[in-house]
Amino acid sequence: MPASRRVTRAVAEVLDLAPRKGEVTLQRLVDAVSTDRGRDIEVKMAELPEGVCGQWRQYNDHDEFLIQRGLPTWDRTLAHELGHLVLGHDGIAVAEVARRATEIASDDLISYMLNQRTGCMGPGGEDIEQDAEDFAALLLYRLGRMPSDRSSIVQVRLGEAFG
């Protein structure tokens, strides 16, 4: 299934932030989004629970993307988490899900719930995990086709459009 127009537009907006000189990398795009938002984004490798490849954590003064240490394709996970951020995904707070599910939550239950995907469906029923995956795939595809010097981005986009 092709990416939605919203996802395609979000990828184009992120690529428009790409530095005009030097190599355009995923990390440089994350830095550009951070600058554009006026809010720091830190990328850290971490030991995450089993089955969790990445997490986006929002703090009062900055955001963090945690990437599972040792992933063979960490860039895909980073692009996925960036997709959540630029697409405006909020999800449901894990603590709120726990309150709804039980009156008393044990440490084991809280740990279990922190490892579950919560809030994957948006208010309109759209699957935000699929949107983030589509964003990551399209961003990495376009990033791979982008020249080191962004001055010829028009040629890249024409090549994508016409093969």
UniProtKB/TrEMBL annotation:
Matching Gene3D superfamilies: 1.10.10.2910
Protein name: DUF955 domain-containing protein
